[in-house]
């Protein structure tokens, strides 16, 4: 994508996700405050911010896990249904900051679970194991294996998920999310716990997913990862979106620098060089 959008307002026809004024309160705590965010077809959008900024809570509002206290989320022009499985069916899939796999199921079985929302076979058909069921099951296995190929896990198909190294568990979560055939994939800290080589490979994987026509919204702390990948990046601080834009806009914004240093710019400490903040241009 060559265009960058720095303001919410007018959007090209291909707007996939349109979150408006999303606010999430827990008792007296406002975790997400009046956040607008759009994701267009084919985009990779970053969401960054210090710990506790409300990033995961915002994801939860986009996936039916939470119903926002205020605001609306539209996906493909439809207001998001208030249940996670309905959101998955509508075409939004996600991975979790804390990996959620079925540890005692195989790698392949974990991906098959992810296909559940796309298979029409009912319980009775499954119990009777008729020809329709067997055909659908064969089709599902084929698609699941193709996703394991795509994510580089095909040779681990028969292993228990819990025996995979951490980086591969993260990839398996992505494979499982892709199995629901999403139009938008939300990734919550996909490189957490990965070594630098795995992180670079994860960048390639995200680009490959986008090349399949799937838009991506990604939360990450690794700034190199974010700025290598993202068409636009939004910054959340204390629940509010303080900046959104391309790499240069975000990197050079004083409020972002302040948020990451954790101290006001007005009172610089003598020992902190101001040009020492990640990421460097
Ligand atoms: N279910 C919840 N109940 C109460 N407070 C919550 C809940 N989920 C998140 N929070 C609070 O909301 C704030 C934002 O958390 P979170 O969205 O996890 O931040 P981030 O992902 O940016 O690190 C934190 O103060 C957190 O303690
Ligand atoms: Mg989080």
TrEMBL record:
Residues 268-281 have a biased composition (Polar residues). One of its GO terms (biological process) is L-valine import across plasma membrane. Pfam families: ABC_tran, BCA_ABC_TP_C. One of its GO terms (cellular component) is plasma membrane. InterPro entries: AAA+_ATPase, ABC_AA/LPS_Transport, ABC_transporter-like_ATP-bd, BCA_ABC_TP_C, P-loop_NTPase. SUPFAM superfamilies: P-loop containing nucleoside triphosphate hydrolases. Residues 17-263 form the ABC transporter domain. The keyword Nucleotide-binding applies. GO terms for molecular function: ATP binding; ATP hydrolysis activity; L-isoleucine transmembrane transporter activity; L-phenylalanine transmembrane transporter activity; L-valine transmembrane transporter activity. Keywords: ATP-binding, Nucleotide-binding, Transport. This is Amino acid/amide ABC transporter ATP-binding protein 1 (HAAT family). It comes from Kitasatospora viridis.
